[in-house]
């Protein structure tokens, strides 16, 4: 029997630093107490409790645990340390099948989870695992990887909370309506949603502007307009709309990879016709060419955006060659998304870009074109609170409030203070469910 069971009031007490709670009033407190993985007291109330373990923050800053709302963890773990946006030359990039055995798959997930803990990431969305990728090249997205997720989930091996979207077509490829319809009727696996929540489906609507594969209303400079990826007997558009409607009807969360304004428009029309949404909000992944009017309509319908500042940074010049200067300047409208109040998450899409959210937030600051405490706080909320809303889990994670889970990222310096790169701020400690899963220097 340990001391906690003998009558301590808390398992863990954090004190001696700045604890940014991201509660509705933006409170900053100096102490936080945890019992059984939950926050039980803040500030003076926490300091009055007797704790089994005490951590002196020594002037550091604690935030709600960082949540990367679009990150391919299995693929990241299998490829690590190779990222697509990196100095690794193409001929040295991993290719072909990346995982061959159950042990390879377990190692890929374990390697991703270690890395995410080092980066202060406590939750993420794995956006697309399912039978559509059973014949896929890498082996990272098929049913076998789903089974590995379930195996490690059930053995209690996770150090990150996971939201998972099922995939009934190819990743970044086509999907057939009849196959999708059969797939979405398959029962979801039984899981503890606090650790592995299978919330919905991923649908690929189109490609990306630099490849002229985003479906756009105004043609590219070469005269083409891109096209939809879904397929079916009634044609691409009817199949796309039916996939979204089917998923919405079944109460699934729908995440659509859509970069072109026409793909976004058709998604919006189905959502507007459907009315209310399910337990977790629907959202567009990428949304490079969303118009201000579409952003306002997305907000009105309760849907959101998962956007990637590093993709904007890395592909802007390339996209400009296809779109022209004016449309490229209006692309990746992060400022409009935040100003509109639409649910917006800042994500990495790792292993496309680095999973290091600090680098991503520096790219987001560049997109906003300003660096003040308000902008920084807005961005920090988009890697903590808004992702929890996207997960349909804001009632129990995403901010540091009594009753919520103790998922905490401790940083060497206060990231809300202007004038320094997020990228230069050290990760001191990562706490998930009240347990330290990473400590700097250990
Ligand atoms: Zn992705």
Derived from helix and strand composition plus strand pairing, the structural class reads: alpha/beta
Estimate the strand proportion.
15-25%
Q: Rg from C-alpha positions?
A: 21 Å
As an assembly, this protein is single chain
Number of helices: 14
Summarize the structure.
The protein is an alpha/beta fold and 442 residues long. Helices cover 32% and strands 22% of the residues. It has two domains: 57 residues, Urease, subunit C, domain 1 (Roll), CATH 2.30.40; 333 residues, Metal-dependent hydrolases (TIM Barrel).
List the helices and strands and how they pair.
Elements: E1 10-20, E2 28-35, E3 38-42, H1 43-47, E4 51-56, E5 61-64, E6 66-68, H2 73-79, H3 102-118, E7 121-129, H4 143-154, E8 161-167, E9 175-176, H5 177-184, E10 196-204, E11 230-231, H6 236-249, E12 253-258, H7 261-274, E13 283-286, H8 292-300, E14 304-307, H9 309-323, H10 325-330, H11 334-340, E15 343-346, H12 357-368, H13 373-381, H14 385-390, E16 408-411, E17 427-432, E18 435-439
Helix pairs in contact: 2-3, 3-4, 5-6, 6-7, 9-12, 12-13
Zinc ion binds at residues 70, 72, 127, 349.
